[in-house]
Amino acid sequence: MATIQEIVSRETPLAPGHRMCAGCGISPIVNTVVAASDKPVIIANATSCLEVTTTIYPFSAWKIPWVHLTFENAAAVASGIETAYKSLKKRGKITDDVNILAFGGDGGTYDIGFQALSGALERGHKFMYVVYDNEGYMNTGNQRSGATPFGASTTTVPAGTHSFGKPQWRKNIVEIAAAHRIPFTAQAAVHNLLDLYNKAKKGFGADGPAFMAVLQPCTTNWHYDSELTIAYSRLASETNFWPLYEVENGKVHINYKPKERKPIEEFLKGQRRFKHLFKPENKHVIEEMQKMIDEEWERLLQLEAAQVRF
Question: What is the CATH number of domain 4-306?
Answer without folding.
Answer: 3.40.50.970
